[in-house]
UniProtKB/TrEMBL annotation:
This is Xylose isomerase domain protein TIM barrel. The lineage of its organism: Bacteria, Bacillati, Chloroflexota, Chloroflexia, Candidatus Thermobaculales. One of its GO terms (molecular function) is isomerase activity. Coiled coil: none annotated. InterPro entries: IolE/XylAMocC-like, Xyl_isomerase-like_sf, Xyl_isomerase-like_TIM-brl. PANTHER family: HYDROXYPYRUVATE ISOMERASE, INOSOSE DEHYDRATASE. Pfam families: AP_endonuc_2. It comes from Thermobaculum terrenum (strain ATCC BAA-798 / CCMEE 7001 / YNP1). Keywords: Isomerase. Residues 21-252 form the Xylose isomerase-like TIM barrel domain.
Amino acid sequence: MNNRISCHLITWGNDLLTGMKEASELGFQACETFTHQALEYENRVEEFRELLGSYDLELSALYGGGRFSDPSKEAEVIAYNTRVAQFLSKLGVDRIVFGPGGPREGKTSLEGLKQMAKTINEAAKRTYDLGVLACVHPHLGTELQDEDELDAVMEMTDDRYVFFCPDTAHLTAAGMNAAEIIRRYGNRMRYMHLKDLTPENPDPSVFTAFSGTEALPIFCELGLGTIDFVPIMQALQDVGYDGWLTVEIDQSTSTPYQSLKQCRDFVQDKLGISIRYR
């Protein structure tokens, strides 16, 4: 497979420089960062480009999104994602992840899904005009979590502008078959997160990313959890997906460095993809 491998620096929290340094030391050539950290360089784009270059890294994407289903936030969400895309465009980066808003308040209603599609369509058109492709990312604990919600949003959004970012762990924990979803929407895939689920398989309802409380992480390093990546990788091959695969570990079970090393070794030794692509 000819996919380019990236890694998310979420595991290092606010220590962006250490994250870049250690990812580079492990051989990674691309990363995704917290958006608020990147936007600190919004008016110093060349400085951020040089910072990435000093670690031989490029930026694969940034996470945008917002509360798409809330009509009162429509203009705000569109403006924010346009702002992020403007920054990405100046850097020459062509992917933005549309993360849905949380916390989840039960199933999203049909009216909410229609509003979500409306806002996503408009925001995606704005980012597309800037040369940045918007990739919808179903996410536990948010307004877009379940398979029927995903299907509705994908059906109601414009496939000329709105693309798809599956996350192996979020799809699986929400009860979906990740390989099946990849086959269903493979023609719209433009980005992907690789993540594993803990062997304990904790109830996704305890997912606390939006509450700020401490809980057992439901995600873990690649190869240490319960997800079978063989059918997932076969599905990617079947749909001809050759884009970014971004390793993401929300919370390390050891140290960020060791966690990323585990993921690096799994990607190279088990999935057969070199993390070095240039």
